[in-house]
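Per reviewer request, we include the raw input and output of the structure prediction for the construct analysed in the revised manuscript.
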Amino acid sequence: MPPKLKDLQKQCKAARLDHRGKIPELIQRLKDHKDREESSPDDQEDPKCDAILVTQSKVSSEEETKRDAKDAFGQALAEEELDVKMVMGELYVGNPHGPGLAGLTTEVASLKGEVNSLEGEVKDLKGEVNELRDHVSTLRLAGQEYRRVRNRFISTFKRDKLDDMTQSDLDIIREGNITAHGGDAAVDALLYEGVEGRQDTYAFEELYGMHPSDVKKITHKETIDILNLHAGVRADNDKTGTDEFYKRFADFIQAFKRSDPKVNYLIGESTNVTRAAYWSLLKCQRYTDSA
């Protein structure tokens, strides 16, 4: 009795073969499968050859998806000839679409490497941008002091050469004198940059209480003013600073170094240690001969 189509289809499904086709085709497919199984293990598998099978399924059920994939794989292996091609210097074997997919996979891996390299460059650029922002902030603070010196130059010219000085000019000259003969932490910190920069950082720290590299990071004007105040008292040849002033300045520096530099310590809770040290220093007697 000749085999029935349904029986042959069931056998093909059980053997994970394509179950579509006419009776003679299914019989031959099952026969070829049996011959492959009865061949020697050496003929069945090359241990040096790996294979990756990928198919696309529109079935939503997981079990149906697996079954559909097995059918598709079986049909591809039974109906399509295998190609051997050199892709990106590597030997690949598969159906006509396989080597192209292998090349695409290799290209994707190469692109990922380029992306990682670009991410590293972007990170370096962000670091440079942050450094430039620090410089801009420092120069902005320095520019306010330099403006006083230039205003002083013009007002002094009016006083000495034009004999046309107002009360405003007197105030400008007085403020300019303080800046010209006092400290300027923001600008002086830049003098220690580069190969030809100053090397005597100990002198800078004696004046401003901090290392130049730390001062360059400060963007808070009131903090720069405090450093400049200390430098003016420390460098004064005519007056002597009080021990209490120097002590309170040291307290402020310690509190400031422990605080978050991104937070304005003059704003916030009343128990802020840095703010307390700031106001304590401003209220302190600066010179021994002061009233």
